[in-house]
Specification:
globular; about 30% helix; six-stranded parallel sheet; 2 domains; Quinone Oxidoreductase, Chain A, domain 1; about 325 residues; Rossmann fold
Length: about 325
């Protein structure tokens, strides 16, 4: 099969290779998926750059964890009725070497849920990390109906979906954005209010203009924490999935303790299976009902292995990056 892989860490154009690799077979409990698209996320880029030094200990890595395609074979213990199902794939390269940037992947059948017939396969390659992360952040601490949620970086890949999950579930949504284009996008997705996170006192603005919030979905935990403390209710929850600007934040422990705050760290790989199942079920319902909006910013061919990773590193655009395989 055609695939992209790396055998050393470094810049995308230096280490990503394109060529032939053995086609996998479905083992017990697995399905073999002929992939149509692979989704590319920051965690994939960081792995290739060397964030996990032991990653290559067992051999080459076919990168990327998200994808979509069609089941073409099944292993022992899997019903043959699954052959022909259109599916999305998640955790393709988590705890395993061979991910989704290839023509085929053999993977635990739980990691290849069935898609509605109307689902776009390019969109489906964005479910695993962006959509499921957003779902967990919004719902991990119970229903959000009639609650006030703050979603920082509302125009980002996860924030984009968090706004939609929260608003559809009946929350009042306050988002942050840094420019007028992103502000209008957040409003179009359902945000009730948008503040500019370039304002050095945006936390006070949220509190004064819209009232304190019950939960925060946070894209830059360390950098934004001083502002969040100004606008979160006592007993509130911060669900955060990133802290890139301040990777080792310092916590104002006394202030947070006297506010009885909860900080929840979210990553799809470590979510409880029940949370994954809930996110999958709700996502499939959203796809069937057609209310969720999606953004594919770039489609990159499989034989241009560096471009997709470089786009994620460069940033400066909204939406997901997918690799077109078939």
């Amino acid at each position: 099969m055609k695939a992209v892989w790396f055998e050393s860490f470094g810049p995308a154009d230096a280490v990503l290779q394109y060529g032939d690799q053995p086609t996998p077979t479905a083992g017990p409990g697995e399905v073999l998926v002929k992939l149509a698209f692979a989704g590319v996320n920051p965690s994939d880029v960081k792995k290739r750059a060397g964030a996990f030094p032991n990653l290559l200990d067992q051999g080459l890595i076919i990168p990327n964890s998200d994808g979509s395609g069609t089941i073409v074979a099944v292993g022992d213990g899997v019903s043959e009725t699954r052959i022909g199902e259109r599916v999305f794939v998640y955790q393709g390269q988590y705890g395993r070497r061979l991910g989704t940037t290839a023509e085929y992947i053999a993977i635990d059948e739980r990691r290849a849920p069935r898609l509605p017939e109307t689902a776009d396969l390019a969109v489906a390659a964005c479910i695993g990390i962006p959509i499921m992360t957003a779902h967990r952040c919004v719902f991990a601490d119970g229903p959000v109906a009639d609650q006030r949620l703050l979603i920082t970086g509302g125009a980002g890949r996860v924030g984009f979906y968090a706004i939609q999950w929260a608003k559809h579930a009946g929350a009042t949504v306050i988002a942050t954005a840094s420019n007028e284009t992103d502000r209008e996008l957040c409003l179009s997705l359902g945000a009730d209010h948008v503040v500019n996170h370039r304002d050095p006192n945006w936390g006070a603005v949220v509190s004064q203009d819209f009232g304190k919030v019950d939960r925060v979905i946070e894209v830059e935990f360390g950098a934004n924490l001083p502002q969040v403390i100004q606008c979160i209710n006592t007993g509130g929850t911060i669900a955060t999935y990133s802290s890139a600007q301040v990777p080792t934040p310092e916590l104002p422990f006394r202030d947070m303790m006297f506010m009885d705050l909860t900080v929840r760290m979210v990553i799809v790989y470590a979510m409880p299976e029940t949370a994954k199942e809930a996110a999958i079920a709700d996502t499939i319902s959203a796809l069937e009902e057609g209310w969720m909006v999606h953004r594919i910013a770039h489609k990159v061919p499989l034989n241009q292995p560096a471009k997709a990773h470089e786009l994620i590193e460069q940033g400066g655009f909204g939406g997901c990056v997918v690799i077109e395989i078939a």
